[in-house]
Structures are given as structure tokens and as C-alpha cells.
Amino acid sequence: MNDTDPYRMLIDGKWVDGSTGERFDSLDPYRQKPWASIPQASDSDVDHAVRSARAAFETTWRKTNGGERARLMLRLADLIEAEAPRLARLETTDNGKVIRETTRQMGFAARNYRFLAGQADKLYGQTIPLDNADLFDFTLHEPAGVAALLVAWNSPIQLLTNKLAPALAAGCTVVIKPSEHASVTTLELARLAEEAGYPPGVINVVTGDGRVGAALTAHDDLDLISFTGGQRTGRLVARAAADNLVAVALELGGKSPNIVFADADLDAAIPGALAGIFGAAGQTCIAGSRLLVERPVYEEVLQQLGERTAAIRLGDPLDPDTEMGPVANQLQYDTILDYIAAAKADGARLLTGGGPADDPDLPTGYFVQPTVFADVTGDMKVASEEVFGPVLAVMPFDGEEEAIRIANSTQYGLASGLWTRSLSRAMRVAREIRAGTVWINTYRTNAAQAPFGGYKKSGFGRERGLDSLHDYLRVKNVMADLSEDVGDPFAMRV
Fold first, then answer.
1. Is 294 part of the annotated catalytic residue set?
2. What's the CATH code, domain 257-440?
3. 374: closest CA among 401, 402, 398, 346?
4. What positions constitute the catalytic site (predicted)?
5. pLDDT digits (tens, 9 = 90+) for 122-175
6. Is 381 exposed, middle or buried (0-12, 13-18, 19+ CB in 10 A)?
7. Residues 81-92: tens digit of each pLDDT
8. Is the pLDDT of residue 2 over 80?
9. pLDDT tens digits, residue range 183-234?
């Protein structure tokens, strides 16, 4: 497939257009121009994909042993690694994330497939000693079945990997629905899966707008739905899953605190704060969008932060020297600017940035200035709602107890960070923060082995690491009576 070819969906091992012939353009957010043509799936296309996944699961995939599943996953990882430069370029063109990050994400995706491939033939059950010695009891871990995987636009390959790798390792078949704002690399990954040798119907991809997601999550022949995205859509997905009594896993973003104590190494903490909010132009669910700074170092941190933020290099995301590219689409661009306006109206002190980028050397892309607001209070929108953009809210605090209170004061609980030279403080605060990830003296650092997921309204379920397999497996208990006694048919045997 050439980059300029119209893309097609993968259903039951065949590359197909949507049944209605409807298509839409993917826009390059840097140049604001169409660059790829994507099919719009219909309800019948979605039904075809689910039925194909079901047939593949029942006839082939659930009976495929773990060693073979592992072999295919390792082959897919090799292909991703070989294609990493091209995949990175395509993803950067599709969503504006800088090439230095998308390149690294491709390698990280391959690592995730390799890690979970190592578990595909090790899904052990256990024998359970019972009170009654005549009963022999053991458990089996079996694949859940057909999983719908819905992926957001900010990191398509990595977000898909978080779901697809454990699904394949567990023995599930899948129907994938990428965001209409960034579908290309998901389709490219499906091509690589086909090349790796996955049987038809194991991996299916349907593309299009919210109509496709609604049809997929409402389908009555799914066993699991895994969704990454915003709260509003997450609620719709959860309702659809409830209607059909389908298991659901949600990752719904955050308003993560990044806490700098007075004894922190500021030479490390300031770059950590920058990474937390301006990496990926702030369009990441783990963005450290609330910077909590202990008062003795508050002004010093603000001074250094303002200087470093003002020097961030905006530009072509395909240029390796660019540090921050455009935001991904018009809707997000408008949303970010609305939050900036709200912060100003609420009385936050603008330290730097505060609007559209005005560099005459930039094209008419969706560029927002890296923005820092100081003296933010908890009642401001910029402190409590997810902006999903390069906007940092800096909040002072006095002492450990207040830092923990502010950190836990939002509805979210996905990620957090803290900076201190005190090991005892680090351990105390880490225990008290209500978030699925706590980074100590680092931020936005990931590992294939480490589980990821949220507390509170940041969702439920875990991705990456061994815990990610739980959503895609079901535990079956098997009990055998080894005695020759005939029991009382009118009393439960224990």
C-alpha cells in the first residue's frame, strides 16, 4: 500500500471499502490539508466485522495454542520495528505529534508485543486444595471472546498496542475502531498483522466517525469493550455495554498533579514539569497539567519555568529539532483556546503564552503557544477540567498535607508525580495519592512491564504489564469428585 492510495478497512481478511462508498479525508494538522482518504463504515460493515471476529474465534483462534500466538506476536513486533520510521512519519502527519516522540513510540509498541508474547503460553491456572479431600479442583484461564477496541487520536499505535497485545496473547479476536481524526497507522498496523500471518477475522478494522463507534459498542455479540478517550464518550460506551451486559474497560483521561517539594532537585524537576505538560503538546491523558509547588521555591520555579517554556521550539513536527508541533485538529484547537480564555477570566496570572502561536515562520497549522498560568486556585476551570493541550496550571502549597489534599481534589486519578530528595516523604505521599500511577523524581516514563490505568473517574481496568491480561481472560473452575460415594441429592455437597 502506498501512502497516497485510498485506504480500505480490513474485515475477515479482506481489504474493503465501506458498503455505502462514503469516504472522508484525514487532515494534516501542520499544513491543514487533506492527505489521506479513509472509508466510512456502515452499520452493516460493523456487523460483518463482528461476525467475522466471532467466526474466527470459535473456529480457529480460541483453539490456537499459546506458543503459536506468541510466534505471531513476535513476528508482528519485528515488522513494527522494521517499519518504525515509516509508521512514525505517518502518525506524525496524521496527528501532528513530533517525530522524535512517534519514533520512540513505535519501538515501545514493539516492546509491548514482545513482553506479552512471553505470556501467551504461560496463562496458567491453579489447583485448589478443598476441605473435602475427595474433590479435585482446578482453574483454567480462557479467552474472553470478541473484543471491541476503540482508540483515541493522540497516540494511535501505542493506545492500540495497550489493548491489542493482551487481547492477542489471551486468545481474543478483535474489531478495532480508530479515531476518525487519526486512522492511518491503525490500518497500517493491520497490514503488518496480515503480513505476520494472522488468520482472517482475528484482527478487523472499521473506520469512520461516531456512528461507527455507536454501532460497534451496541452490537449484541461482543464479550468485551475497551475504550480510551473522553468522559462524555466513555459514559456512552459504558451505557451501551450495560445494555448488552458486556464487560467494559475505560481509560478516560486525567488532571494529573505534578508536585515539587522545596527539597527537590530543581535541575531535574523543571524539565520534568516541561515533559509533563508540553510533551505531545499536552495532548496526553497523563499530562501533568497541575504543577503543585511548595511555597519556599514557588517564585524560583515560576521564573525558570517561564524562561524554559518561552524557549520551546515550535515547528514542523517532521523536523527532528522541533520540540512541539500543532495540536491535532480544529475541535481540540478551539477547546484549548476556550480554556485559556476561561483561565484569564477566572483571574489566573498568565506567566507566558496565552493564545495562538504568532510566529510568522509557522504555516497556518493548529499551533497554540505553550502556556503557563500561575496562582491558580482549585475553583478555576483550568485546575479542575482536562484541557488536553499545552496549558499548565501552577498552584502553591504549604506542606505535605496540603499537597496531598490538592492532588486528590479532582474527579480524576490517572497519573501523578512528585519531586523530593526525601525517600520517606516520597513513600508517604505515593501511598496517599489516589492515582493509578505515581512517578517519583521522573514524569511521563513508561515501561511494558508496568500496569497503567486510573482511579476514580479516570476509568477502570489496566493496560500494559501482566495485569492487562485480566480483562481479556475468563477464569473457569473445574471440580471433579474422585470418590465412589453417592451423595444426598437434597443437600448441597461441600
1. no
2. 3.40.309.10
3. 346
4. 251
5. 999 999 999 999 999 999 999 999 999 999 999 999 999 999 999 999 999 999
6. middle
7. 999 999 999 999
8. no
9. 999 999 999 999 999 999 999 999 999 999 999 999 999 999 999 999 999 9
366 contacts 333 by C-beta, under 8 angstroms: yes
pTM over 0.70: yes
User: Does pLDDT of 3 surpass 80?
Assistant: no
Q: Could you identify the residue written with the cell 489496566? A: 462
Name the nearest CA neighbour of 259 among 58, 408, 56. 408
Q: Is the pLDDT score of 1 beyond 70?
A: no
- Residue 343 in this model has a pLDDT that exceeds 60: yes
* Grid cell locating 73: 506476536
Closest by CA position to 362, among listed 327, 334, 392: 327
What residue type is assigned to position 203 of the chain? I
What span, in angstroms and rounded, lies between the C-alpha atoms of 120 and 324? 38
Cα 366 to chain centroid, rounded: 22
For 231-286, the pLDDT digits (tens) are: 999 999 999 999 999 999 999 999 999 999 999 999 999 999 999 999 999 999 99
- pLDDT, mean over the chain: 96
- Measured CA to CA in angstroms, residue 257 lies from 163, 424, 434 at distances of 26, 19, 11
Pairing, β 135-143 against β 127-128? antiparallel
Could you tell me the fold of the domain covering 9-251+464-477? Aldehyde Dehydrogenase; Chain A, domain 1 (3.40.605)
- The answer to whether residues 372 and 394 touch, using CB atoms and an 8 Å cutoff, is yes
Residue 394 amino acid letter: V
pLDDT class of 485 with cuts at 50, 70, 90: confident
Q: How far apart are the first and last CA of the chain?
A: 61
Q: Which of 188, 251, 386, 400 is catalytic?
A: 251
